[in-house]
Every structure is written in structure tokens, then in C-alpha cells.
Amino acid sequence: MGYRIKVLFIIETLDIGGAEKLLLSTLKYIDRDRFKPVVIFLFKGDTLQKNLEDIGVEVFGPVLKDYDVPSLKNAFDFFRCIRLVKKEIQSIKPDIIHTHLFFANIYGRLAGRAAGVKKIISTYHCTDYTHNIKNSLKFKIRKMLDLLSGKFLTHMIIAGNEAVKIDVETHLKFNNLVLIYNGIDVNEFLVPSNKEEILSLKKELLLEENDVILLNIGRLDHQKGQEYLLKALPLVIKSNTNVKLLIAGVGPLEKELKELANNLNIENKVKFLGKREDIQKIIKMSDLFVFPSIFEGMAIAPMEVMACKRPIITSDYLGAREVVTNKVEGFIVPTRNEDQLAESITKLINSPSLRREMGEKAFIKVSSKFNISKNVKEIEEGYISLLN
Predict the structure, then answer these.
(1) pTM of the full predicted structure?
(2) How far, in Å, are 12, 33, 113, 382 from residue 96 at the CA level?
């Protein structure tokens, strides 16, 4: 094997999240004959570190172990973080740096250039600026750092979907922007579900064998819109009393959402699962996926569900129509609208044949458009074009 291009991937944490899972899937399929991937993560959270090491990727971190995600108001901490990241980069000596998520973008760009790395790429995952209405000094500084470091220190900006591309073009006006769709490892979801494992999981979660299971995966946060899903559930239960809702994720709204379920008298119909490492089994145990987010970039969870041949009910956030065609792979409903959410859920829970039909079409869509084994080739071509 000749010389391989060393690509250093910098990300905020390796806890389970959309960007983190995208990185893992990307590195499974990157051409190891041409590229040597290395990963550093900045802050505490190493859930996926072993997964990366199991596929032969060197991982270093947390580089900024003394910090939670720090604010930019503290100049001393900010420059200390840059020095620490620079030191790690100098020890790795990459040909290319590829950053993911805001703090990794900022620290990776500034520290990378200070360390002498000539080629820097950043991936944007969310429509942050379109939906962020803050006008504080802190936010203005954050945006200015993003804009200047992206424009003058970054050679390629990757947008994970069309909605993110529009967001970045509109608010940051980069001229080095390319669209490469985020994706998932579809092959990972092709293993048939084990009936005994599914029954065992249902038993563990105190579910009945004939329950119709709705699933939501996401951080418990206002952005994810779980409150509207909870408000829709009493309307759904009027049509089918065997419905159960599983919500997988953690976040700042956990207590508030549990209180809402109690106030709606649906606490016996909702299970908050917290952080789970058996999400694929939970998806295969479910009958349909409900994703009522207020805004997203290119969320990974809906694609994983589609790979398991499950239909999607999603709110109409910017980018939803890139993933789901209304009434084909599922339903698209207005954001913050529990009535239409309930109506679409009821249609699907009362029609197993429609669920199967939409699930099959969902699989075809994700396999053709969002399969990381295909999309990673575009990223590799970007690396080669930069170095040439």
C-alpha cells in the first residue's frame, strides 16, 4: 500500500447523535487504500469511540476534557481551547481536516490553520441560522466567527441537504459550498428482525403483543416538537386503544414532557426510553415513526426508520420533502398541528396494508438517495480535487 491521504475528522463529541452516526457510517465506507482517517473529539461523550476503533480508525479525545461545550464570551477559555486543539493536530500531521458541528468547525479551522494544515473542509448539518432569531452579542460573535473562518480558512463547505444549503447560502453567503447528501449505512439495516428478540424487547418494555407501536427518536427539546405528538395521542386513542408511544432520547424537556403526558391522562400509553443503544431493534419492533420537528437539517433517524421499511409521519419543516414524498413514503403534516398529526397517525394505524406499502417505498427511497456507501464517493472526490 502506497501513501494514503491522512484525513483528520474533528467533531464535538462521540455521543450518539445524527452527525456522530453520519461520521461513523462515512468512515465505514471511505476507501482505505487511498485515505487514512483519524478522529479527534473535543468534549466528553465517547459512546461511539469503540465503534470507530472496531473499524480500524484511530480516535483521540476528549481534547477539551476540562470543558463542557464552552460559550464564546470567555476569551481566555476560547484561545486556550484553540491551543489545545492545535497541539493535537500537530501531533497527527493531517493532509486534510474535515470538521463537523459548530465548535468543531470553529476550533478546527482556527487551530488547523495555525498548525499549518492547508486544506480544511466543514460539513453543516442543520438550518441553524434560518430558525435562530437571537440577536444577542454572543450570537453575533458566534455568527461572525463562523462566517469569517468559513470564508477565509475553509476550502470546501459541504451542506448535508438542500435545506441546509439554502440556510448557509442565505445567511453566510459562502461561495465554496457544495451539496452532498447525508446518508446512512443501509446495509446495516438489512438483517431480518429476530422474532424472539422482538417479543423479548416488548416484554422488557411491558408492551402487549398486539400493541400498535408509534416511535419517536430525538432529543427532548422544543425543536423536536414532541409536545405536539403527545397532544395528538388522546385523539388517536379514540380510534385505537391498543396504541402505545415510545419516545427514545434525553434532553432538557424530559420532566416537562412527562408532566404533559400525566396532565393529558396518557401516561400509561407513553414510554420515555431515555438513551438507548438498541435503536435498530426498537425501530423494527415499531409500526410507524412520527417526527414532529419544528426544524431540521437532514435528520438521520427518519432515514434509519425508512431503511427498516417503516412509514414516516413528519412535520413540514424545511427539508422534510427531500426525505418524504407526501402520501408515498408517509405523510407530511403542518408543524405544531396536533389535529392533522392525529389524523395521519390514525390513517396508518388502521391500515396495516398501507403501512406495508409505504414502508416498501420508503426503503427504495433511502436506498437510492441516502445510502452512505454511494454518497461517500462524492466526499472522496472532494478530497482529491482539493489536493490537486
Answers:
(1) 0.84
(2) 18, 16, 11, 11
